[in-house]
Automatic annotation (TrEMBL):
Protein name stated in the entry: Uncharacterized protein
Organism: Kushneria marisflavi
Gene3D superfamilies from the UniProt entry: glutathione-dependent formaldehyde- activating enzyme (gfa)
InterPro entries: CENP-V/GFA (IPR006913), Mss4-like_sf (IPR011057)
Entry superkingdom: Bacteria
The keyword Cell membrane belongs to this UniProt entry's keyword annotation: no
Length: 140
């Protein structure tokens, strides 16, 4: 049986659906993720394109970074980020959406498995997860 995640922004006007399992669930410390999401690290999941049904394009603002090919899609009513595209074919959905859909808890099967670009961090994290200094643990 395939897991289906029904996700939404805070106001509920923007919804997206993810099927099955992500390619990765992780923390990313790279400068691009920090800039794109405005946070000290991204906590998120990366998916195969054909496993995600994105929101209707007229429901979202398509924010594009000015200096690199990275995009973030925001509910145009409430302003919550619902997903990003860091490169073609790989939607990235923040853990926060899965928590919201699951009573505040991250579903156990989506627990992060590693830190990516840890050398670029602005905050140390004292956990036991593998820490990839760059992208090598993801084959990047
Ligand atoms: Zn909304
Ligand atoms: Zn990153």
């Amino acid at each position: 049986m395939t897991t289906t995640y029904h996700l939404s922004c805070d106001c509920g006007n923007t919804t997206l659906t993810a099927h099955g399992a992500p390619e990765a669930t992780l923390y990313c410390h790279c400068g691009s993720c920090r800039a794109l999401y405005g946070t000290v690290m991204l906590a998120g999941t990366a998916w195969r394109d054909d496993r995600v049904e994105p929101p209707a394009s007229d429901q979202v603002i398509d924010y594009r970074m000015s200096d690199r090919d990275m995009r973030r899609f925001v509910c145009k009513t409430c302003g919550v980020t619902v997903y990003g595209r860091h490169r073609p074919g790989m939607p990235v959905i923040p853990h926060s959406l899965f928590r919201k859909a699951n009573g505040g808890e991250l579903p156990a099967e989506l627990a992060p498995t590693l830190h990516l670009f840890y050398r670029d961090r602005v905050l140390d994290v004292a956990d036991d997860l593998p820490k990839s200094e760059g992208g090598e643990l993801m084959g990047m």
